[in-house]
Structures are given as C-alpha cells and as structure tokens.
Write a structure and sequence with these properties.
By secondary structure, this protein is α+β, with helices and mostly antiparallel strands. It has a single domain, classed as Beta Barrel (Lipocalin). The protein contains four helices and eleven strands; from the N terminus they run αααβαββββββββββ. Strands 1-2-4-5-6-7-8-11 form an eight-stranded antiparallel β-barrel. A hairpin with a 2-residue loop joins strand 9 and strand 10. The chain is globular, with a radius of gyration of 17 Å. It starts with 14 loop residues before the first helix and ends in a 13-residue tail after the last strand.
C-alpha cells in the first residue's frame, strides 16, 4: 500500500478541468505531461474542444471537433479531424455532412516522435502530430503539434499545443486544444493525397 499522502499524489484531470485553465496553466501541463500510447488510441474517436478562443469566438465559429486514430500502412498511427455540429461540450456528437451525406474531414496527421527536434519554449515531450506528411492539401499542411497525455498511464485525455511550421520556422502562439476518448471509430477516411514520410 502506498504511503504517499493524498495531497502529494497527482489528481486525475478531466476535459472540463482543462476548459477552466489559463494559457499558462495549460502550458505547465504540456511541460509536465506524459507520453502517448499511440497503439491504445487506434480504432477510437475523440471529442475535441478548443481551449483558447474566447466564448464569443466559440459562439460565432466553433468549439468542438472530432479527432480519429487508425493504424497507418507503414505501421504507425494516423488520423484526421471531423467538423461537428455545434451543440456544446455536453450536447449530441453529430458530425457535419456534405450534400452527399459524407462526414466533412480535414487536417490529416500522423503521430510522430518528437525526439531530436528543438521545440519552442524548451518543450521536450515524446510525441507530436505532423500535418505536413499526412497527405493534406496546401491549406492543412502547416500544423506541427506537440501532444501529451494529461494523466499518467492513460491516453484517453490528450492536450495539444498548436504550432505552425512555415519555411522551416516554428510559430508558437498560445493556442491549445484537448481531446477525450469518445467511443469506437465510426468511419475511416483516406487523406486527399498520398502521405509521405
């Protein structure tokens, strides 16, 4: 039995907890976060929430989205975003669809090792989402997103920090999002172009 006092053990955080945090608090979680277990994420879809826009931005634009994870042909893990109808964090999870009834995916990515990359603000985590090699069209290719598991031993709640890689330079605003596991994957979507790397 552990003799560590309860006050010294790390509390399990939730998506709702992250939504109340400031940018500096979210960056602190990025800095102390845990490695993902990509294999444990395969076959799942995740409810996503923007953590940086003001409430007015959420009302005018969007707050929720979906991220998905599948085994890639090269043995790694890839995924994509899905645009969602906006019913709030605790409302129905309904993907937006085109005139043919298909989900509206965007922003394909691959989970890659962050080792050997000099990251802004001295970040030194284990994984990032690479949008530049996942077969995106021009407009979705710039994401280079560090990610951490928020709670030790589980990849069911993930925090991401939006970084953009442009002409070899990393642009790192204080923009964060989080995703939580939300059931089995419903639809597999190929990227618009052949992935590379």
């Amino acid at each position: 039995m552990s003799t560590t006092p309860q006050s010294e053990t790390a509390a399990t955080l939730t998506l709702d907890d992250l939504m109340t945090m400031s940018s500096s608090e979210l960056q602190a979680i990025m800095d102390r976060g845990y490695p993902l277990d990509p294999a444990a994420m395969v076959g799942k879809q995740y409810l996503g929430a923007d953590l940086s826009m003001p409430k007015l931005g959420h009302a005018i634009l969007w707050q929720t989205f979906r991220k998905t994870f599948v085994q890639d042909e090269d043995g790694g893990v890839r995924g994509w975003n899905v645009r969602m109808e906006q019913h709030g964090m605790h409302g129905p999870r309904v993907p937006r669809r085109d005139k043919h009834g298909n989900e509206r995916p965007f922003g394909h990515y691959k989970i890659r090792s962050a080792a050997g990359i000099t990251w802004p603000r001295g970040w030194s985590g284990r994984h990032y989402f690479d949008y530049g090699v996942a077969g995106n069209t021009f407009t979705d290719r710039w994401g280079f997103t560090p990610v951490v598991a928020v709670n030790e031993g589980s990849s069911d709640l993930v925090l991401g920090w939006e970084i953009f890689r442009v002409a070899g330079r990393m642009i790192a605003p204080s923009m964060y999002w989080a995703i939580q596991a939300d059931g089995p994957l419903e639809t597999i979507v190929p990227p618009p172009r052949k992935p590379r790397g």
